[in-house]
């Protein structure tokens, strides 16, 4: 079992907690992390880009002028892509960028990302994040105490004081443990876990 320290918001060590090695101490495989991150990024794409083709543009279906004798190139349709106001040739159409990954692979990648934070000493376990008041300045002070700039904070339940105090800081993200994902863990330099979330995370990933 891996043992890490538990801190309060003043960065004072108050206890220790054991981490399940099946979640927080697994071999890290970069290609698995890459596969899951690419999948997450692809699934966030809206795929709504679209352009009107020649069959979608409103225009006369009558032949514009006679075939021969004008000295001009022959033309049949006002909606031709070669004419001004015509439809686009090979333009984008709505599509799905969805890239599915097996659940086992997602869980394995999540364990790898958590392991990486433990091995690089970028994981902080905090007893709780119940701030006494909604104050951005106080929250910034807490981050300075931990010497952290870019951080992901994971809580058990919604903590209004924490979320409202941190929402104006672009380098900090707060989420509940249910939304924990590989992309966000790797995106932010440090990971803060409320002590109460560890059991829930281990329970979800050890199935």
TrEMBL record:
Gene3D superfamilies, alphabetized:
3.40.1370.10
Q: Which key words tag this protein in UniProt?
A: Ribonucleoprotein, Ribosomal protein, RNA-binding, rRNA-binding
* Highest taxon of source: Bacteria
Q: Name one GO cellular component term.
A: ribosome
Pfam families for the chain: Ribosomal_L4
Gene Ontology biological-process annotations: translation
Q: Which SUPFAM superfamilies match?
A: Ribosomal protein L4 (SSF52166)
Region annotation Disordered: where it falls in the sequence: 67-91
MF terms from GO for this chain are: rRNA binding; structural constituent of ribosome
The family note in this entry says:
Belongs to the universal ribosomal protein uL4 family.
Annotated function: Forms part of the polypeptide exit tunnel.
Question: Self-association or partners: how does it assemble?
Answer: Part of the 50S ribosomal subunit.
Name of the featured protein: Large ribosomal subunit protein uL4
Organism from which the protein derives: uncultured Desulfobacterium sp
Print the organism lineage. Bacteria, Pseudomonadati, Thermodesulfobacteriota, Desulfobacteria, Desulfobacterales
Question: Gene symbol?
Answer: rplD
């Amino acid at each position: 079992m891996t043992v890490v320290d538990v801190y309060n918001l003043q960065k004072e060590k108050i206890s220790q907690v054991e981490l399940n090695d099946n979640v927080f101490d697994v071999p890290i495989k970069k290609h698995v992390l890459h596969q899951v991150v690419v999948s997450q990024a692809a699934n966030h794409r809206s795929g709504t880009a679209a352009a009107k083709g020649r069959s979608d543009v409103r225009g006369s279906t009558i032949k514009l002028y006679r075939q021969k004798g004008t000295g001009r190139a022959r033309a049949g349709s006002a909606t031709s892509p070669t004419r001004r106001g015509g439809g686009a040739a090979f333009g984008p159409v709505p599509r799905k960028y969805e890239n599915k990954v097996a659940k086992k692979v997602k869980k394995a990648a999540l364990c790898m990302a958590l392991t990486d934070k433990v091995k690089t000493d970028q994981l902080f376990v905090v007893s709780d994040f119940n701030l006494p008041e909604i104050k951005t300045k106080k929250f910034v002070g807490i981050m300075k105490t931990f010497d952290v700039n870019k951080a992901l904070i994971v809580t058990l339940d919604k903590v209004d004081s924490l979320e409202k105090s941190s929402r104006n800081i672009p380098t900090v993200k707060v989420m509940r443990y249910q939304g924990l994902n590989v992309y966000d863990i790797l995106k932010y330099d440090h990971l803060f876990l409320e002590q109460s979330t560890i059991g829930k995370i281990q329970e979800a990933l050890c199935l």
